[in-house]
Amino acid sequence: MPEHPQHPLFTIYKRRYLSKVTGYSVGYLCRIATGGQPLSRSFIERVCFTLKQPEEDLFLPNAAETDGQSQ
After folding, report:
1. Across the 71 residues of the chain, what is the mean pLDDT of every consecutive 10-residue run?
2. 3-class DSSP assignment, residue 19
């Protein structure tokens, strides 16, 4: 399986902490981090709002383009 570049979100914050503050399960966050689950616009917005951080600081460029694939 090819290496999946990880979003800065997962190098800045631990998945257990993200699970606690966002309500997403650790398993779901792991799937997003490894590319097993595509990002959705709602996930990006919820995480950015909860952490009070801009999208460009937490996600790779063009991360939102996967939105159409996840619905």
Report:
1. 75 96 97 91 96 94 57 40
2. helix
